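I have been asked to look over a protein record a colleague put together. Alongside the sequence sits a line of tokens, each denoting a local backbone shape. Please read both lines and tell me whether the tokens look consistent with the sequence. Take the sequence as given and treat only the tokens as open to question. I have pasted the whole thing underneath without changing anything:
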Amino acid sequence: MVDNQRQQKPNKAMWLSVIPGLGQLYNKQIVKGGILLVVFLLELLEIVVLGIPALTGLYSLGSVPMQDHSLFMLIKGAMQLIILALFVIFHLVAMRDAKLVARQMNEGKKVPMTAKETLETIYEKGFPYLLIIPAYLAMAFAIIFPVLVTLLIAFTNYDFRHIPPYRLLDWVGLKNFLNILELSTFKTVFTSVLSGTLIWTLAATSLQIVIGIATAVIANQSFIRGKRLFGVIFLLPWAVPAFISIMSFGNFFNDSIGAMNVQVLSFIEKFLPFVDFGIVPWKTAPFWTKVAVIMVQGWLGFPYIYILVSGILQAIPADLYEAATVDGVTVLQKFRHITMPMIFCGCSTDADCTVHF
């Protein structure tokens, strides 16, 4: 039984860590508490020197044209918002750590006190986090930051009549979004772009899934030879950099000399005399351009589905197919009642993996 005089109060340790380090010092973790306090002081320095001016600029977006640049002030403010979010996470982690350590001390468990013990604990328990944190930080500034800036710009009057630094930006709230619904010009453009995006997403995703499943099922048949070669070929769209593939497809879909019009469609017309494609304007007609983009995205994305489905197919017990053959089940019935349910089961943790005939 731990002496009551030495009992730590987890909630007290947690609330003391609102200022990171105090809770750790309360738990007698001098080294950890000192490090967290230093980080907290650096945090305060950043907020005073950089944070407050950045947030003030984000709020006002400038007051003197040609001197204040509203867009730069907005960008700096967005950056500071992300930094503040990281500071909040830092405080929450410190509070949670202080509370957990206090509980462990009350339970008589050993907690790191010295610098050596702290480093050993970080290496043993925190090493994965040390590897992951840089990636998350990079993601925050490379992905979240541009999205946040774009989102903030959507609430300003940024247009060709308000281009900093000649004209300052102003916050207009939801006016831009209401204009999409109220102004016919905006509504037409928005509806066209939104419908095109939805069609592209559904069609491209469906095409990737169909091609990926088809290639995986065919390549994993027992009578197919050279499966590794097929695997390498099917992975080429993934291995080749996307911009190189897109440039190649730009030539492939050229209206006059592209391989799609000159070779592929001409080849199809020889076997289907009643079909006459003519010269398809892949790059000049909006409809055919969308079709071409969907085809390109299907090519670029199907290798992921191929790898996923191939792994699932190789894990399906051969006994299922042998039992189905004995029962006189056709190939299509095997695909419908064994292969597809197993693929769906492998892609979803909530799926019913029971096979029914």
About this structure: The mean pLDDT is 87.
